[in-house]
Amino acid sequence: METITPKKEVEKIEDYDDLLEFLELCGLNPVYIKTEHGVLRFKTNNIIRYLVDYHHEKTLKTHGNERGLNLIWDKGYTDGFTLKEFVELYIHMGYSLGGFLEMFGDNIDAILRISYDGRTGEFIHKKGATEETIALINKPIKNSS
Fold first, then answer.
1. Collapsed DSSP state (helix, strand, coil) of residue 83
2. Concatenated DSSP letters for 118-144?
3. Which residues pair with 40 in a beta bridge?
4. Greatest Cα-to-Cα distance within the chain, rounded to the nearest angstrom
5. In this structure, are residues 84 and 138 in contact, taking their beta carbons and an 8 Å threshold?
6. pLDDT in tens, 71-90
7. What does pTM read for this prediction?
8. Who contacts 97 (Cβ-Cβ below 8 Å, separation ≥6)?
9. If DSSP codes are grouped into helix, strand and coil, which group holds residue 40?
10. Cβ of 26: how many Cβ atoms within 10 Å?
C-alpha cells in the first residue's frame, strides 16, 4: 500500500537535498509517496504512465522494441524537448527518487554546480545555481551539452 509522504519528511533525508533544491528551481512541487517496501517515489499520474507504457501492433511494426521512453527520448532530441519537460514526465510516471537521481543526477550537478572527484567520486564542493545554469532547465536537450 502506498502512503502520501509529506515533503517535510523527504526534506529530512540528506540524500535528497539537492534533488529538492533542483525541483524548486524547476518550479515543481510534486507529491511524494512511500511504497509498502519503504521506497520513496513521486505520485504516479496513471494516464501518463499508461501513455508511456502503451504500445500496439502498429508501434511494434514501426519501431520494434524501441517504443515508450526510447521513442520519447529520440523525439526529445530531434524536437528539442526541454529538461523540465523530461523531469515532469518522470515525476508523473511515478519514478522513485533514487532512480530519478540516477537519471537526472548529471543535470542536477550541472545546474547546482556540484563537483566530484573524477577518480574517487567523492564530493568536492557545491557552488550553487546561477542564472545561467538555471536557464538549462528550459533549454532544449538537443542543445544542452
1. helix
2. TTT--EEEE----HHHHGGGGSBGGG-
3. 34
4. 50
5. yes
6. 888 888 889 999 999 999 99
7. 0.85
8. 10, 16, 19, 32, 40, 41, 42
9. strand
10. 19
